């Protein structure tokens, strides 16, 4: 617009200049002619002619000067037009995101100032574009899938990882509803709750119909104080983690040798069978089987033959037991079978006897190992739900008591459980009241099992383990009395007493060594369920002036998952107090590691059942390795418990476990002995350091 108006105006000036100059020339020429003509006719008129000529020259001269001015004005206008044109071209370039070179800021006039403003604008625009490009590059460089949607879920933006994960191009997703990429058959729609920050899990669906498990978080875009409505979903593909978890669960539940459920899984399945039987009001029977003289087979034909025998037993039981039964290997050469709908009375009973006999006969068939014909027989104890016991533990114990009696009868027979076979039940009742008395009489003790840093061999802390000392029977281990204490509220009192004792010991150690390490204390479910639990713990710590950061609470995986929502809240409170939290006996429960992620846990303790075979069984080594890696990925310390020999220690070192504890370094010890160990370490005279070299 400006560019066009100025040329018209300059053309006008130029035309005016030309017209004036022409007029001046015409006037001059006419005057000259007139003077020469007059001088020829009358010299008298010469003077008048000269005066007129003077006027003429003056008029012509001023006209010439005027035209010169016009030319100058024209030149100036041309120059300005060129500068404005230059500005226009640069502005157009800028519009097309081409930053070009800065304009020369010549002159202090309005155009010079305009050029300066323009250059400034160009620089600022370049800066924002550069930072926007930078954000774009960050987004596209991220391995996490980033999806930005509007409040109603319409996709506004995605990054490269999203297109790679889902196989869609950007254009195919922009504007689509977020549910388009969620596998709604397998998971609910994404939850846009930004406050918790807890990762959630869902399944995405790729363009090719593949279902992809992801862990995601969602945040809401804050717009200068006020809430904008856009959502940012950041998701990670967790297929590998899922696979690893499935493998862990498989290895943790299935006996590697015989491929039937191990003890833990069998108990779990038995629990479920009992629940079903209770609902349908039907009985079930548990057959507990033990191979007769298994040790002889091992000793005579070697361990390979021993293993082959166990595999044969599992195969034969699987083939001969009714279809809906569950078979498990409970220990070395002990197997068990749960058969639903087999009861203790009338026809049921004879069916059970026939089944028991046929299984024992099938097991007694000879088989061949490395060219040797092996004969084996087995014994069997039978107990019924609900007649003989109402729960898993008692049912197994009673079937075991019947098995014991079958063994005593010489083997290759089965026996039904009778209450007289099991005095243990009576003893159990007695133990309960004795335990209560023992607690009141202060007969409980706390021992400490050191935890060692696997790289340096330094003592990192200890686990407090309660013991009961009976004058006539010596030390009783917790496995024999904690379950009984847990049946009553005694466990709460015992738990608090242990914590109190640990704090007392801790203060004593602090008088002699600067840092007694981190001491962990086991918690039971009943304690966690106490209403004012956090307050009570806080009070104990304060009364001894022990810092919460010196202590760690161990909670088993099963306890954590009892009522996760409530437990998360409680653990958050404990964590806020400064306490460390550990998952105990990891691998024995049924939770996924992702489910455990919601708890503020900093330590993972691998159950000793996995450590036991870690050096001998590659499957267990894989399992432990996977747990260690998963724990490390979640920034947790990983402790292996139950380390009994150097081979296990070496394997754990190779698998990069963080800490170890176990009988390899001696029995759990008294508070005095633990202090001695800490002092020896400070002097450099501790004896276990060499094991870690
Ligand atoms: P836990 O918390 O898993 O403790 C580890 C157990 O493994 C301890 O058994 C320990 O003596 C044992 N252990 C340590 N090293 C080895 C090893 O190399 N080989 C083998 N085979 N075992 C090893 P303990 O003392 O019999 O305690 C058994 C369980 O009783 C504990 O398992 C814990 O769940 C519970 N417990 C112990 N003290 C307390 C307590 O104060 N309160 C509560 N609620 N439970 C406790
Ligand atoms: Mg423990
Ligand atoms: Mg444990």
CATH classification class of the largest domain: Alpha Beta
State the CATH topology of the largest domain.
TIM Barrel
The fourth-level CATH homologous superfamily of the largest domain is EAL domain
| Number of alpha- plus pi-helical segments | 23
Mean pLDDT: 87
CA-atom Rg in angstroms: 46 Å
The major pleated sheet works out as: 8 strands, mixed, barrel
Low-confidence stretches: 1-5
Spell out the key features of this protein.
52% helix, Beta-Lactamase, 4 domains, binds magnesium ion, binds ligand C2E, 21 strands, 693 residues, 8-stranded mixed beta barrel, Alpha-Beta Plaits, disordered N terminus
Descriptive report:
The structure is a single chain. This protein is an alpha/beta fold. The protein has 4 domains: 141 residues, no CATH class; 102 residues, PAS domain (Beta-Lactamase); 176 residues, Alpha-Beta Plaits, CATH 3.30.70.270; 178 residues, TIM Barrel (Alpha-Beta Barrel). Helices cover 52% and strands 19% of the residues. It contains 23 helices and 21 strands. Strands 13-14-16-17-18-19-20-21 form an 8-stranded mixed beta barrel, surrounded by 5 helices. The chain has a 5-stranded antiparallel β-sheet with strand order 2-1-5-4-3. Strands 7-8-6-11-12 form a 5-stranded mixed β-sheet, with helices on both faces. Helix 2 runs parallel beside helix 3 and helix 14 packs parallel to helix 16. The longest helix has 51 residues. The protein is elongated. It starts with a helix and ends in a 10-residue tail after the last helix. The relative contact order is 0.05. The N terminus is likely disordered. It binds ligand C2E and magnesium ion (2 copies). The site of one magnesium ion (MG) has 5 residues, from strand 18.
């Amino acid at each position: 617009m400006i560019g066009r108006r100025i040329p018209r105006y300059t053309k006008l000036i130029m035309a005016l200049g030309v017209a004036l100059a022409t007029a001046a020339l015409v006037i001059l020429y006419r005057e000259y002619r007139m003077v020469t003509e007059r001088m020829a006719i009358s010299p008298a008129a010469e003077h008048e002619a000269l005066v007129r000529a003077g006027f003429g020259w003056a008029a012509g001269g001023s006209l010439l000067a005027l035209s010169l001015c016009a030319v100058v004005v024209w030149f100036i206008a041309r120059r300005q037009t060129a500068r404005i044109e230059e500005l226009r071209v640069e502005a157009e370039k800028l519009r097309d995101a081409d930053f070009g070179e800065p304009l020369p800021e010549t002159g202090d006039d309005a155009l010079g100032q305009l050029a300066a403003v323009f250059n400034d604008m160009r620089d600022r625009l370049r800066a924002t574009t550069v930072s926007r490009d930078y954000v774009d590059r960050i987004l596209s460089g991220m391995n996490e899938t980033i999806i930005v949607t509007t409040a109603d879920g319409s996709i506004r933006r995605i990054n490269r990882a999203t297109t790679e994960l889902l196989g869609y191009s950007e254009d195919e997703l922009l504007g689509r509803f977020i549910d388009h990429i969620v596998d709604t058959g397998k998971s609910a729609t994404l939850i846009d709750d930004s406050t918790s920050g807890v990762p959630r899990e869902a399944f995405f669906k790729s363009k090719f119909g593949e279902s992809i498990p992801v862990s995601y978080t969602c945040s809401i875009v804050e717009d200068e104080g006020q809430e904008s409505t856009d959502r940012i979903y950041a998701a990670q593909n967790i297929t590998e983690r899922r696979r690893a978890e499935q493998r862990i669960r498989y290895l943790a539940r299935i006996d590697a040798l015989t491929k039937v459920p191990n003890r833990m899984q069998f108990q779990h399945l038995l629990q479920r069978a009992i629940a079903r039987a209770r609902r349908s009001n039907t009985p079930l029977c548990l057959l507990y089987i033990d191979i007769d003289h298994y040790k002889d087979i091992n000793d005579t034909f070697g361990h390979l033959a021993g293993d082959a025998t166990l595999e044969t037993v599992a195969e034969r039981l699987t083939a001969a037991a009714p279809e809906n039964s569950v078979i498990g290997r409970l220990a070395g050469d002990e197997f068990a079978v749960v058969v639903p709908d087999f009861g203790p009375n009338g026809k049921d009973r004879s069916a059970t006897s026939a089944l028991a006999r046929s299984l024992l006969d099938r097991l007694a068939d000879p088989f061949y190992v490395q060219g040797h014909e092996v004969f084996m027989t087995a014994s069997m104890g039978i107990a019924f739900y609900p007649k003989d016991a109402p729960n898993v533990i008692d049912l197994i114990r009673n079937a075991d008591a019947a098995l014991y009696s079958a063994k005593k009868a010489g083997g290759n027979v089965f026996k039904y459980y009778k209450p007289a076979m099991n005095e243990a039940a009576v003893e159990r009742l007695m133990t309960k009241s004795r335990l209560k008395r023992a607690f009141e009489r202060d007969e409980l003790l706390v021992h400490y099992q050191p935890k060692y840093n696997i790289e340096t061999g330094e003592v990192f802390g200890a686990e407090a383990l309660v013991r009961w000392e009976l004058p006539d029977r010596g030390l009783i281990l917790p496995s024999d009395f904690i379950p009984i204490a847990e049946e009553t509220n005694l466990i709460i009192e015992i738990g608090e007493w242990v914590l109190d004792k640990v704090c007392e010991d801790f203060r004593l150690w602090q008088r002699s060594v600067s840092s007694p390490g981190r001491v962990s204390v086991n918690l039971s479910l009943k304690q966690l369920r106490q209403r004012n639990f956090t307050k009570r713990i806080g009070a104990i710590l304060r009364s001894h002036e022990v810092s919460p950061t010196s202590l760690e609470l161990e909670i088993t995986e099963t306890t954590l998952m009892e009522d996760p929502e409530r437990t998360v809240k409680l653990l958050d409170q404990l964590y806020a107090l400064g306490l460390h939290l550990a998952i105990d006996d990891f691998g024995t429960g049924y939770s996924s590691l992702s489910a455990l992620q919601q708890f503020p846990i900093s330590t993972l303790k691998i159950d000793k059942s996995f450590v036991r075979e870690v050096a001998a069984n590659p499957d267990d080594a894989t399992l432990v390795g996977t747990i260690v890696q998963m724990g490390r990925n979640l920034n947790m310390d990983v402790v292996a418990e139950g380390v009994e020999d150097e081979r296990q220690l070496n394997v754990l070192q190779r698998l990069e476990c963080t800490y170890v504890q176990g009988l390899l370094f001696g029995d759990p010890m008294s508070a005095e002995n633990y202090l001695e160990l800490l002092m020896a370490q400070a002097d450099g005279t501790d004896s276990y350091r060499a094991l870690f070299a």
